TrEMBL record:
Cross-referenced InterPro entries: ComplexI_NDUFA9_subunit, NAD(P)-bd_dom, NAD(P)-bd_dom_sf
PANTHER family in alphabetical order: NADH DEHYDROGENASE [UBIQUINONE] 1 ALPHA SUBCOMPLEX SUBUNIT 9, MITOCHONDRIAL (PTHR12126:SF11), NADH-UBIQUINONE OXIDOREDUCTASE 39 KDA SUBUNIT-RELATED (PTHR12126)
The protein, known as: NADH dehydrogenase
Highest taxon in the source lineage: Bacteria
GO molecular function: protein-containing complex binding
Cited SUPFAM superfamilies: NAD(P)-binding Rossmann-fold domains (SSF51735)
Pfam families: NAD_binding_10
Domain NAD(P)-binding: 10-152
């Protein structure tokens, strides 16, 4: 296909940091929005990538940046909000999507690729509800849309294995809410490839794709495997839901908000798919076993070094 001018919202985040280089490799020209472009110079070194300072929530600014674009990709999403009433999720997922759709209509940008979440609309969490509400806006937009619904995404720098590896450095005993919640983790490289292929193929227009990996695992298994690969001792305590909810309530007040009540409500819905969206796009899903052991290799080496120092302390 001919190279496209693509505007990416959320392009400096985890998925965006993998997707933008993939789109660039496919020959496209990409504009990425950032609150501080100086913090993302690694993207700016790619010759067909522009990193622009812009407030994506400002309709006039977003409209200006979309002038002359062929397609827009919305990767913006949050897992937690300030407060707990859902207004943060509403702003990040629904209001921003509405602003983007209006800007696309005003500038004549017809193609829109939207990031959502597996099981959006199920359960009582603000996160899943607003993801679905944003999907509804996209489906009713009149644009040439494609929606992606991934399970939890893993890869270098993720908020899954790397997050638990960091926690395990601090706490060998880990009380775990919803320890048996199930996921089908999908590799970030496969997600980036799905977006790239959807842009190239008209048959993806008007379709939603569930993106998930070949293996279903529980949260307990994810933590246990992370501990093994990082050479950390770990005692996992699966909490009954009453205590898990209490942990989430306390977690909302801790630095970094490691878990919230809305996270807990999301965990009540298994992030497992039914229809292989990767396969529909001609992508063979990447097993975790091919990526995660090497990905956590640095943690494993650091753990061995820490053990050596502990053993020879005072010698």
């Amino acid at each position: 296909m001919k190279p496209l001018n693509i505007v990416v919202l959320g392009g400096t985040g985890f998925v965006g940091s993998h997707l933008v280089p993939r789109l660039h490799a496919a020959g496209h020209r990409i504009t990425v929005f950032s609150r501080n472009r100086e913090q993302h110079r690694e993207l700016g070194v790619l010759p067909r990538v522009r990193v622009e300072n812009a407030d994506v929530h400002d309709a006039a600014s977003l409209t200006r940046q979309l002038e002359g674009a062929d397609a827009a990709i919305n990767l913006v999403g949050i897992l937690n909000e300030r407060g707990s009433d859902g207004r943060g999720f509403e702003k990040a997922h629904v209001a921003l999507t509405e602003t983007l759709i209006a800007a696309c209509r005003k500038t004549g940008v017809r193609r829109l690729l939207q990031m959502s979440a597996l099981r959006a609309g199920d359960g009582a969490s603000h996160y899943l509800r607003t993801r679905f509400d944003a999907e509804t806006r996209v489906r009713n937009s009149g644009l040439a849309w494609t929606i992606f619904r991934p399970s939890v995404i893993f890869g270098p720098g993720d908020g899954l294995f790397f997050r638990f590896a960091s926690l395990l450095r601090l706490a060998p005993v880990l009380p775990l809410a919803r320890a048996e919640a199930r996921f089908a983790p999908v590799y970030v490289g496969d997600v980036a490839e799905a977006f790239t292929r959807a842009l190239a193929h008209p048959y993806s227009i008007g379709r939603s794709y569930e993106l998930f990996g070949p293996r279903v695992v529980s949260l307990r298994e994810i933590v246990r495997w992370t501990a093994e690969l990082s050479a950390r001792r770990c005692w996992i305590i699966g909490l009954p839901d009453a205590f898990g909810y209490l942990q989430a309530r306390i977690g909302e007040w801790l630095p970094g908000k490691p878990i919230s009540r809305d996270n807990f409500r999301s965990l009540l819905v298994d992030s497992v798919g039914e229809k292989d969206g990767l396969g529909e796009l001609g992508i063979v899903s990447t097993p975790m076993e091919l990526i995660v052991p090497e990905m956590l290799g640095a943690d494993r080496r650091q753990a061995k070094l820490d053990a050596f120092r502990e053993e020879h302390r005072g010698a």
